[in-house]
Design a protein that fits this description.
Elements lengths: L3 H15 L5 E5 L5 E2 L3 H8 L4 E7 L2 E6 L4 E5 L4 E6 L5 H4 L2 E8 L2 E7 L5 E5 L1 H9 L12 H8 L6 H5 L10 H10 L13 H20 L40 E3 L7 E3 L9
Parallel strand pairs: 2-9
Antiparallel strand pairs: 1-7, 3-4, 4-5, 5-9, 6-8, 7-8, 10-11
The protein binds a DNA duplex through helix 7.
Length: about 280
Amino acid sequence: MPELPEVETIVRELRPHLTGQTLSHPRLYHTDVLRRVSRERLLRTLRNNRIADVSRRAKHIVIELGTSERLVIQPRMTGSLVVYERRLSADERRYAVLQVRLGTGTQLVFRDVRRLGTIWLLSPSAWERYTRRIGPEPLAAGFSAARFAAQLRPSRQAIKKVLMDQQRLAGVGNIYANEALFRARIDPSRPADRLSDAEYRRLFRTVRAVLREAIAADGTTVRDYRTGTGKTGSYQFVLRVYGREGQPCTRCRTALLTTHSIDGRATTFCWRCQGKDA
DNA sequence: ACGAGGTCCTGCGAGC
DNA sequence: TGCTCGCAGGACCTCG
């Protein structure tokens, strides 16, 4: 799914298209994506409402409405939110979950092949509770290596799993966890409470570098991800470990390995560069 | 509290 | 060719 860089790209592209627009003709094609909101209330709230702002929190797209409620979309694995300034093709209409007209032939469409994505409609107080449960933003101006370490270190779980724990740190998923750990030369299976201060400083730097570089490249398109205007990202061409099992390590040329032993997710790494106490 | 594993979905590629 | 199986950018839940 879209991780932080993909959602940031979507939001940056959509903001100028959406801000100030009035919504009409909302259509919901599947109700199983709704969380704590009925189809009726969602459609009623969207109809003739105005978009006040579009932003990102962790991996979630936040559309603030003129009535100060927030439409929050979690794309999860295969969701994408795209503005079309023309009619949709049959293929684009396929897998549409939510569609809203923005005016003169322009449509905002949330589509999601696997439909693991979710849609929330939150009051200001519900939003406050929602965002409070998510960890700090890794790219926030005041975020520091010390704060980063303080968030992750209390856990004895594998550092890779902890890095992806949204309650400890916002926005890092499987692709960027793999990339950041490789670049910091840290074994993904190491317990988080056993990393040194120096290792946390390294990991802090590589997490932020990888996320920033991925945003600059408009994100990583493995299969389904598209930017807010329907384009693919380009960071997939820059990945050093994710999806490169068996290929040579960019640093030492040793063949990269993949394990599923950490949280059941694919972890690709260089056993030589990311060895036990490398 | 922790880890393991299932669940929600559909599509795709590998292997037989 | 046509099947079954496992796996896929995530997060939430239950069980032991």
